[in-house]
Write a structure and sequence with these properties.
alpha/beta; 8 strands
């Protein structure tokens, strides 16, 4: 019990905005599309602009992770309980590419499951690119000697 208390004390709250347009001019997007998290973190999806929701995709999350579905124009929180990948969409705008991918730990073992999910239009293409980005990110070892301040 003490261990879970200590874990929750260091858990992060990650805020992701649901936007009609980002600073780069992209329309119908989440402010973060590749979201790094750890077990115990909470991801809060905030409807900064109207007409958006955030929800997990059926069969596109780690085994044991509870699915979530936010209502239109309402914030929703997603508590991370399992390592792996979770696909997130804005239901009204997923075909326009309003999708995100949560990467928990360095676990991309359910990547094929994410790629098999039925996400229409540009959303499916973007999820595919995000999965490849996550795989590359996890495959690259961090060499502290190569990092400079």
């Amino acid at each position: 019990m003490l261990v879970s208390s200590a874990a929750s004390a260091v858990a992060d709250i990650i805020e992701v905005e649901m936007l009609n347009r980002n600073d780069a001019g992209e329309r119908m997007v989440f402010s973060q599309e590749l979201i790094r998290a750890e077990v115990g973190d909470t991801i809060r999806f905030i409807p900064t602009d109207k007409s958006h929701n955030a929800q997990s995709v059926r069969d596109a999350l780690p085994e044991g992770q509870e699915a979530f579905r936010g209502r239109l124009n309402e914030a929703v929180e997603y508590v991370v309980t399992e390592a792996g990948l979770t696909a997130v969409v804005c239901l009204p705008h997923q075909s326009m590419g309003m999708v995100a991918l949560v990467v928990v730990g360095d676990d991309v073992s359910n990547a094929e499951q994410i790629l098999d999910a039925r996400i229409p239009g540009k959303g499916g293409d973007k999820i595919e690119a995000l999965v490849e980005e996550a795989r590359a990110m996890v495959a690259e070892p961090v060499n502290e000697a190569d990092q400079t301040s």
